[in-house]
Amino acid sequence: MSRDPRYQRLLNDKRWKLLRAEVFRRANGLCELCKAEGFITPGVDVHHIRSVEQAKTVQEMERLAYNPANCQLLCVACHIKVHQDMRTHTKEKVKENKERARRRFLEANDPNYVHPYGEKADDYLRNLEEQAKMEGIIYPDDPPT
Ligand SMILES: [Zn+2]
Question: Helix or strand or coil: residue 57?
Answer without folding.
Answer: coil
